[in-house]
């Protein structure tokens, strides 16, 4: 059985380019691990591979749902496993690449047994947040589930909402339910984490990439999505980094300078969270900015493939 290549790292670390190189070199197909690339039409702000790239190398779990829809980690894990099995059946190498760490954990470790999403309860929590603000709901969560609240920023709407939903629906804190998970093995894997040793270089790459997204038309892309779909700012798709800030710009609550500054700052915070997850993992690490980084990764994957033959 061909091993699964698991390629992770923070945003702007070069995962997509390296995954493409691995796929072309070893006859692979790419399974995207990106909670924003699943949405149709969200191309610029997600750094989605263009059509020509996707014609050269098959990509999976991109453009799965409309931006009005929800897409869960559980659904990702099931669809990613199906894609991996199909890739192996074709005699090709599955390259699972991306930076949504919850999705990656759902795939490799399984998910905790949590209550299912409750649309009515979520709507009620959203209405409360509109009246009281997310910091007030964070304070409520701190009383009900202090361990979970300590992990979330007072403005982290998505996580606060889910934690409150769980405790209100089940009467049991989210932190008490998490950690009990299991998943069927993927078979052989080779896990690689891109871990920059110089944080300043990553920050520079983040700033350059966000500037490029703005120049490519991120704001116009979002304006088009708002015309095409019945969107609102609290939808999961519109909470994605870049789109959240562009939404505020289109609403006139921030100017172009603030759009740029807040977009870069939010992306840096995302990278910081990704690196925290990666440090706790057991993947082999390489500095993506090292001159020999790509060669070292290629050699490691080549050895794993040879050993599986």
Structural account:
The protein is α/β, with parallel strands linked by helices and 309 residues long. It folds into two domains: 4-111 and 181-308, P-loop containing nucleotide triphosphate hydrolases (Rossmann fold, 3-Layer(aba) Sandwich), CATH 3.40.50.300; 119-177, Histone, subunit A (Orthogonal Bundle). Helices cover 54% and strands 9% of the residues. It contains 14 helices and six strands. The protein has helices at residues 15-26, 51-56, 73-89, 101-109, 119-132, 134-144, 146-149, 157-170, 174-177, 199-216, 218-228, 243-250, 256-279, 293-308, and strands spanning 4-8, 28-33, 59-60, 93-98, 189-194, 284-286. A six-stranded parallel β-sheet has the order 3-2-4-1-5-6, with helices on both faces. Strand 2 (28-33), helix 2 (51-56) and strand 3 (59-60) form a beta-alpha-beta unit. It is globular. The termini are close together.
Radius of gyration: 20 Å
**Percent in helix:** 40-55%
Query: In the CATH hierarchy, what is the class of the largest domain?
Result: Alpha Beta
Order of helices and strands: EHEHEHEHHHHHHEHHHHEH
**CATH-assigned fold name of the largest domain:** Rossmann fold
Q: How many independent structural domains? A: 2
Low-pLDDT sequence parts: none
């Amino acid at each position: 059985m061909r091993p699964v290549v698991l390629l992770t790292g923070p945003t702007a670390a070069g995962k997509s380019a390296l995954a493409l190189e691995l796929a072309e070199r070893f006859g692979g197909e790419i399974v995207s691990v990106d909670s924003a690339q699943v949405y149709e039409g969200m191309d610029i702000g997600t750094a989605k591979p263009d059509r020509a790239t996707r014609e050269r190398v098959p990509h999976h779990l991109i453009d799965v749902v409309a931006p009005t829809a929800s897409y869960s980690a559980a659904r990702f894990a099931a669809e990613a496993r199906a894609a991996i099995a199909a890739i192996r059946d074709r005699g090709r190498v599955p390259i699972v690449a991306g930076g949504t760490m919850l999705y990656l954990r759902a795939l490799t470790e399984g998910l905790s047994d949590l209550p299912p999403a409750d649309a009515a309860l979520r709507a009620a929590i959203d209405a409360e947040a509109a009246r009281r603000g997310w910091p007030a709901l964070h304070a409520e969560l701190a009383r009900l589930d202090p361990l979970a609240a300590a992990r979330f920023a007072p403005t982290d709407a998505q996580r606060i909402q889910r934690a409150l939903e769980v405790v209100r629906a089940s009467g049991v804190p989210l932190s008490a339910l998490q950690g009990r998970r299991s998943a069927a093995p993927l078979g052989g894997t080779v896990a690689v984490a891109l871990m920059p040793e110089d944080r300043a270089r990553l920050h520079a790459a983040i700033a350059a990439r966000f500037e490029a997204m703005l120049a490519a038309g991120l704001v116009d892309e979002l304006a088009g999505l708002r015309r095409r779909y019945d969107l609102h700012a609290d939808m999961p798709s519109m909470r994605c980094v870049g789109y959240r800030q562009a939404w505020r710009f289109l609403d006139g609550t921030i100017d172009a300078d603030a759009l740029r500054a807040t977009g870069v700052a939010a992306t840096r915070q995302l990278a910081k969270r990704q690196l925290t997850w990666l440090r706790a993992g057991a993947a082999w690490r390489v500095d993506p900015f090292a001159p020999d980084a790509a060669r070292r990764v290629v050699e490691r994957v080549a050895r794993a493939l040879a050993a599986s033959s």
